Fold:
Amino acid sequence: MAPEHTPLTVAQAQLKLAAKKLNLDSGIHKILSQPKRSILVSVDIRMDNCTVGVFRGIRVQHWDVRGPFKGGIRFYPNITMDEVTALAMLMTWKCSIADIPYGGAKGGICVDSKKLSKGELERLTRRYVSLIVEYLGPHRDIPAPDMYTDAQTMAWIMDTYSQLKGYSIPECVTGKPVEIGGSEGRTEATGKGVIHCVKEAAANIDLKLKNAEVAIQGFGNVGFHAAQAAHGLGCKVVAVSDSSGGIYCQKGLNPDAVLAHKEKTGSVQNFKGCKNITNEELIEAKCDILIPAALQNQITQKNADKIQARMVAEAANGPTTPEADRILHEKNICLIPDILANCGGVTVSYFEWVQNLTREHWTLEKVNGKLETKMTKAFNDVYSLSQEEESDMRTAALMLGVGRVASAIKTLGLWP
Structure:
């Protein structure tokens, strides 16, 4: 029977593996296994019906030796301190692999955002920021959007922080609307970044992208933009899915047409000319490239041996269990791990921060060019290390990410 995997147990196991491979000092391993700061607050607001709503708010700051903390804020009913800690840790490695000067953080509020009005969400966001404001800031901790938060949420955060400080500080948050200092290309950055990695990996396994069949689990922001970018390269997107199920079409799909259908009907299913399939069937579908862009633990030891793809690019966080990792490696399937594949979002967040600090605004062409350069270098850094170490890509990515942070701690030392 497979062990139960939580985000934190997997993150700790991955750190342990990297520490062993790097022959890491035991003291530095201990430092990196715990967050520098974990904040738990009670977010109390007046609801529209004049009752008081009480919600739990969390912010975890993992480690900041390479730069200020950086990470998303999610509004989700069942978030836990352990889950947020794991995600903050992964964000540290992600920033390190992308070679951008940030440390990892993550935060959120335990709330079903679909049940709150816009006014209640605004009050919730502003109250949360007011409770942790002393730990935030453009040189301390810069939040970004995550599950069930968006550009509007970031605008409220920016305004609240700025009001409390007494002047406008757009660089205190990223993922804002463009009209108040957001960056061009931020919305599509994660999905585009995944496909930049796919393009590099395809060259290494001699996979021609023209008419290569792509299946994407998850058709939210990341999945849609990955589908759009793959389609733009000449790939044939044969399957996509959302939480209600998926569709398969051997001839290929137009992502824009599928999105229009989803917006009209609420689901990708029943799209003209396609066969309805389950999310489980999508994972095992005949394709060249599989992109899990939905939930964690989707590829397990139960279905890993049935995967027909030559390449798996993890757009989601933690979609593959450790047991499945081994099976995919034994099957010689090229796996691009999450901490590499989906770091396009934080990379363009970094670009937004730089633009805000310098009060510049870059063109979409400039942002996209810089994103491609960063993603290509990150992929090749990991791939080169995997070849040198004769390891799988996830192990190499962890070694690179953890190694750079450990080196910074060692160089700076501990004070006092």
Summary: The two ends are 47 Å apart (CA to CA). Residues 155 and 176 are 6 Å apart (CA to CA). The chain is about 45% helix and 15% strand. Residues 189-332 form a domain with the Rossmann fold fold (CATH 3.40.50.720).
